[in-house]
Amino acid sequence: MYKINCLNPIAQVGLKNFSSQYEITPDVKAAEGVLVRSASMHEMELPEKLLAVARAGAGVNNIPLDKCAEQGVVVFNTPGANANGVKELVIAGMLLAARDVVGGIEWVKASRENEDIAKAAEKEKKNFAGREIMGKKLGVIGLGAIGVKVANAAVALDMEVYGYDPYLSVNAAWSLSRAVHHVTNVDDIYEQCDYITIHVPLMDATKGMINGAAIEKMKDGVILLNFARDLLANEKDVLAGLESGRIARYVSDFPNPTTAGQKGCIVIPHLGASTEESEDNCAVMAVQELMDYLENGNIRNSVNYPACDMGICTTIGRVAIFHKNIANMITKFTAEFGEKGINISNMTNKSRGEVAYTMLDVEEPPTAEMVQALEQIPGVFRVRIVKG
Q1: 299, 359 in Cβ contact below 8 A?
Q2: β-strands 317-324, 380-387: how paired?
Q3: CA 159/CA 136 separation, integer angstroms
Q4: Which of 1, 79, 156, 360 has the least CB density, counted as fewest CB within 10 Å?
């Protein structure tokens, strides 16, 4: 029986996918698997039994990835599960920035006591007039699951779309509309586009990438949209750009004291993935990833370990080893099995940066003695019997 703890409420449509082999427990210390959304795990002591964490969403800033990797705890996320919800809000953000719909609505609320409101509106509406997005140039920085959907939707709205992503995946390339202009220098987007939307992960290399230097290259009156992470933009530089007129509007899905209520800022209370459909999709995907890992050792959509899939185990035993990505580890593993006369029928090894993951299907049940011998090899973080 696998025990699962939910650090946040998880949609029932996902939880109901757990088979009778699983039990939801309120005691995180007893859990082999954890499902989480926004709860911070950085100050949390990882339970000794914990094998995996599945984030029902894309961002994993709330999870100590390196700490988990060193303890052989696989961290999953659910890329693409909420992409449509975010895409739709990005398109809404463009429309809100292009036409002062919010200002118009607020004027109507303030004028609700005016019996001649309809006549007054005809005179007042010029203050809220805007521009159409058809024919405008949109730059999409980051062509992952969300960026591709935004780019394709903008093409359908008759915008001229430019996409930048130096790490464009094969799947993303196949999904991307042929009408999107793929540029190899992000400066082309800064210099040419009327609208710029950013969809990249937050890393040291991307933190603050929308800064004064980048803004200086942009067209006057550019509209910036940030539905990825607020720290991707140096928002003090953004406010300076708004003050100078270089930026016409800044649309963000991340409320904070820097931009909330500031002139030219349209700040949404982090609603990008807050749809019933997105939450359901993320929950289902997270549960599926967790089950496949716990039952078969397969890793799909991990952010701290490499992807690895050996399918359903059909042999009598399967052993999973988490270790440093250094030379001669495979030789040492196979030597231990060889010394004990255990035949390896199938094996795979994958690496990701400084860590690696090895799975071995064996023709005899793995023993506690075997696990202990493998754990004593320098560089091994954890050994797990998946089946045996």
Answers
A1: no
A2: antiparallel
A3: 5
A4: 1
Contact 286, 55 (CB under 8 A): yes
Locate 321 and state its tokens.
Answer: 């080893």
What is the distance between the terminal CA atoms of the chain, rounded to a whole angstrom?
15
CA dihedral 105, 107, 108, 109 (to 10 degrees): 90
Residues 263, 192, 253: CA angle, nearest 5 degrees: 40
- Give average pLDDT by consecutive 10-residue segment, the chain, 388 residues: 96 96 96 96 95 93 95 95 96 97 95 94 94 98 96 98 93 93 96 97 92 97 96 97 97 97 96 92 97 97 96 92 97 94 95 97 91 96 91
CA distance 32 to 201: 28
The per-residue pLDDT for 58 is 83
Structure tokens at 53: 């964490």
Give CA–CA dist 73/67, Å, rounded: 8
DSSP lists the bridge partners of residue 362 as 317, 344
pLDDT for the residue 61 = 87
Query: 369 is written with which tokens?
Result: 């003695």
pLDDT reported for residue 334:
96
